[in-house]
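U., I forgot to send this yesterday:
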Amino acid sequence: MNHPTPAIVSQGAVHRLPRAALLLFCIAYVLSGFLGREPWKSADITSFGYMTELARGGTEWLSPRLMGLSPEVDALLPYWFGAWAMQFAPAWIAPDFAARIPFVLLLTLTLFATWYGTYYLARSPEAQPVAFAFGGEALPSDYARAMADGGLLAFIACLGLAQLSHETTPALAQLCFTALSFYALAALPYHTVIPAIGGVLGLIGLTLSGAPALAALFGTGSALIHLLDRSSEPGEMKHKAFGAGGIALLTVLVTLLATSLGLWRWRIELPEASWAEWRSLGRLLLWFTWPAWPLALWTLWRWRRQLIRGGAPSRHLALPLWFAGVTVGATLTTASADRSLLLALPALAALAAFALPTLRRSVAALVDWFTLIFFSGCALIIWIVWIAMQTGVPKQPAANVARLVPGFEPSFSFGPFLIAIAATLAWAWLVKWRAGRHRAAIWKSLVLPAGGAALCWLLLMTLWLPLLDFARSYAPLVRRATVVFGQPVCVEAHGLSRSQIAAFQFYDNLMLKPVGSQASCPWLIVGKDALITLSASVDLTHWTLHSTLRHPSDRDEDVLIYKRTAEAKAVR
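Result:
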């Protein structure tokens, strides 16, 4: 029998995921990673450095600088968010945590936008399941709600989402505004005011967050898809034309905005024609978007007859395919491949949701078993290494930690330990629930992937947080420098990265001055990779090497400390 769509869904398969459980799950996922940690290297602490400079008035708002260096990403809005949060936060709130508060809200908005974007795509007439001869098929609103639950679970399950979505960087702001634009364009056929506001905020926010080219491409392609969408009634052509014209006008406006602020930068870097480069990109695409990408491919295969019919695209497939295609293209042609690929996750999650009504029972069982083994194994490894750090048993994991992160002293915190225990017990209950008999909700195949990804992230952010802070922050390096400097008036710097500059200014409140600035500082910090240019920038006869400070886990972050000679002080 030739069904109009491949989705055959009964009303009994679309009962909603319990809202209290979904809300608690999202809260746990969002907050873990933002609470209780240090700023991490390198993008996280770098962005925080620019926010700090803006908050204290040390640089211009339209052209932020960090010791004279412009940001690597030509963004404005993410740095403004962090600076405003630090300015308005009470004095008892740590500056680095205050800067994270807007980004907590951005990630929360991303989850909402992904859910509602999938919901409105599933409301499309072309996406509806087959009507049964004697009734009993899923109602449109219930079907769309269940699909949206599946899309949100697919989004959270993506392995690449965890770290990048919990950093205070332009990447998270771009993700949020991409998801907001995606929602607005998905909901436009059903509402006008709220999608219009979402579209304006999404495309303008994306432009001000350092991705004006993506904003222009999203807007241009979406306007064409909206205009050609065949799911609307013939009498709605005027409404479609009006909506497409509005999207096109907004795209022109954001293009002009980016031009006026000088946000256009040529960043296209074609990958090298080598097997190693393409293998690296292939691995990134495979693991970063897992498990959304195989489900998205399955969607395109099962819904292939609905994608293009009669020369017109179907909105519920064409819109997420366009967003995903643009961002994957950016991934292959830009240096920051992982941060570009991050923007594809909302669209890939929506595509993955449309695979759920078409999955065979054997495929769903395979997904469940693979997820169960993979994430249970990861959680077990996290627990074993943590026990080894606390007790020294087993010996090999404890020795590995001591070798990889020399100088780390483990500590025990009762609160994080209880949270980790609760998360592990919740995972065990979830596995038992999935293995038991219950109604065949179409989102059930993504419960274990999303729960497993959240479990491992939560365990890392509780049990391993002291270790990760020691290994991924600059705090140990700066503490060693503080012992050397004492309380200097100022320190000259040469060849430090943006992240190192931000770290020394934040942790030690150093007055960093670039060499050659006529500063009379008693100390000089030199980046490890800048030694070859040091003699061309300073007179080395006025300085003597004092010590080399090593980062506990990354030799590329080592710095050299020079002290001004007594003769040089006398001359000055």
